[in-house]
Amino acid sequence: MWVLVVVLLATVTGCQTQRIVCSPTDYTGCVVDEVRVTGNKAVPDSEFTSRMATAATGGSFEGVPLIGAIDTLTVQYERFDRFVLDRDLERVARIYRAKGYYDAVVRAGRVRRIDEHKPGNPDMSNTRLLVEIVVEEGEPVRVEKVNVSYQDQLRVDDPLLPLALLRARSVLGKDDIFTEEAYEAARNSIARTLTDRGYAYATVQPSANIDIKNRKATVTYTVALGPKCTFGKVSIVGLGGLPEWQVRPALGIEENEPYSTDTLENAQVALAELGVFGSISVEPVLDRNAQPLATKVPIMVRVQVAPLGTVRLGGGIELGDQVAARGIAGWQHRNATGALDRFSIDGRVRALAYPWRISTIGSTEGRVEFVPEFGVRVQYTLPFPGDPRAQLFAQSSVSYGIKQNHDPPDVLAEGQPVPVEILLEHSQGYQRKFFFSRLLLSLSHNLSFSNPFNLYFEESAASRILISYIDVYGQLDLRKNDANKYDRVRPTKGVMISTDVQVAGFIFGGDADDVRLKPEMRWYASLAKGFVLAGRVAMGFLYTNGYGFTLDDNLETAPLLCPGQEDPNVRDACRQQQQSPTVSKDVAILTKRGFFSGGPTSNRGYGFNEISPQRVVDDNGIKLLDPESVGGRTLWEASIEFRFPIRGSWTGTTFIDASDVTRGFGELRIDHPHISTGFGVNYETPVGPLRLDLGVRVPYLQVIGVSEVENCTNDTTGPEWNCPDYIVDEGEATDIFGLPMALSIAIGNAF
What we know:
The structure is a single chain. By secondary structure, the protein is mainly beta. It has helices spanning 2-13, 45-49, 69-74, 82-98, 161-169, 180-196, 244-251, 261-273, 568-578, 581-593; strands at 31-38, 105-113, 128-136, 142-150, 203-211, 216-224, 230-237, 277-284, 296-305, 309-319, 323-333, 342-354, 369-384, 387-402, 419-434, 439-454, 465-477, 494-504, 513-528, 531-545, 614-617, 623-629, 634-647, 650-662, 676-685, 688-697, 727-728, 741-747. It has a 16-stranded antiparallel β-sheet with strand order 10-11-12-13-14-15-16-17-18-19-20-23-24-25-26-28. Strand 18 and strand 19 form a beta hairpin. Helix 5 runs antiparallel to helix 6. The radius of gyration is 33 Å and the shape is globular.
């Protein structure tokens, strides 16, 4: 709407371009259209353009009819100033010295007009300039030697200190390019090593002797140790009404214990994990003027309490494997009974256009059902008394909507039922974080009860399922951002390793007896500022006991549909088997406990759950127009992704995903990689990137050597069809405009 207003205003006032005051003699005041840096190999353009005052004009719509009025009123044109350019050249030279290139020569190559103009025409109103900066880098200065000297005697009670300092100073190594960043990083590394080992007053004085002629640098770090210290009294300021008996143990700082900066940072992270503080400061109180220096260091903790009660309201449109309008409302309190316990209740409503997805919106084929969905979830978390890094938790939810893990058909035929369910879930358990909250261990008991229906509570042949299982989960998260801070949302380096082990049934009761294992590893490498290479590998194994026979070809109890056979008795017997509650229940349990792949967080060339064994016949012996995904017993997934900046809050990704799900336990197929590749565009938001990904399935790489995967679901005509089994290994994947690809929109990185 605002665009139309801008266009109308510009049209009425007759504005075409901003008035330009431009000198024809030295181009002062002319618009800078482009700034170009040439000859720079060691330092990227972004290092200069982000610090220079001479910048290119950033208008996006200039010259476009009508829409160009947006630039007229909103864009601030960058003007050329020769004196500003001279200062920019000094900045560039300074950047090169900081990078170790002391011989670098930086000059303005040329400033010229790049607009169309006629010789002798005095009109300068449309003048556009190209500013070119030429760099001659030369050879860098390299480190010849790094020394560490001591102002006071090295402590004999810490024999490992020299080795620790040797590792610390290796940040700046022999023959490395001498950069100011590495020079300072080595100093900080040495200082941090000393304070971590109890030397609270330690100082490190750096000095460098640079031989520009020979391009060599000798670096010396002079260390003053001071006394070895212990923690003194810990004071906490700013708690307000929060319970100090819970906050103080979270710090993990005990009086008279050895002083360590690691312990202080661990305390700050632990307080942040409580989720009740808006700002946190944990600082030592050091009096460097005292004689002698105090060996017992007091600690001052200053906090500011964040709002404890929060109301959430929101809504939006969901586009992806489902198309829906949704709304959410919730309330939580972070100190419900005065013990830092957290209580929250959330409700959601959703109107789902079934079976539309992003690739079939507006399709006139078949019918569309608008399915109402709703759910309520209640959560309670209590920090363990005396050990708030450990938590007791309980969560219960009730929901009504489309069946969990259901893969909607491409077309909903007349009379075809819409599967919905009432789902009751409850979990309760204990979790604790260790090592700066990098290691999480959790033990919980979980219950899930599913009562399936057809839409609007019509009778359904599906079975009610109760699943009871113990879940043991462990996660080691060492992901960091560019600032070298631990960061789960926007990691650029490090690894995350997790393992989830579930044991269902047996002594825990329920309808499913199985053991489910899913390990996963994610890794990240920063190639340059803003450029990240990331990867993910996951496996899944499900050992079933007493169910899963519908996945097995060799069992006599496995139902096989043979409508093409001439013997009607065989066909009727087969159909009767498929109507049995045993088969229906078996499929229902597999749908809850089995593995699936495909979607915005796994294989992005496929829709949600499209990679898995497929059920091609319903319980009445009728071939399904679209196969239903049935969970498999073995899963593998692998992804690699390259992330790069575009402009401002916009970033891009290119990716390759591969995965497979099989019927058998431990059945790994390397000849069915289901490889997809594609690209994505992300917009950064406070809760993570808003992401749009387009994945394309590569021919000959879904099943190695096969251009297009053929399966029995391709034949939908005639009384006979080529499905020998009740379950097949491949189903029909989603297409967009007839092309083998999938489009998804999501919040947060794929991994």
